[in-house]
Amino acid sequence: MTMHAGLASGRWWTLTLAEQLGNAGADVGRAIRARQEGDQGRFDAALDRALELLDLTLADPRWSGPRLREIARTREVVCDFLVGDNLYRSTPELLDAYFLAFAIAARRDR
Known about the structure:
Blueprint: H1 5-8, H2 17-37, H3 40-59, H4 65-83, H5 92-108
Helix pairs in contact: 2-3, 2-5, 3-4
């Protein structure tokens, strides 16, 4: 099921990488907060949205090589933290800081 039908239809690929990751990061942050508050429904929905946006970013034909590897690793780290064993020893603060940098860059470049 596609939650972001308008974005999945191609509009996502008109956004810069900073805009894409900033938007995905907003849902990662929502998932983190929902998990901290023990709200499983909000957590599941936010995680699904975040992963869908990261998958759309991975499918963007503009990204290749090191960029594509970083996007794939980002998705791996998010999954590891939110539903895995946290082998990368991520924290909410580290993930927020990572994605916030993209959100700031996206706003700056407008």
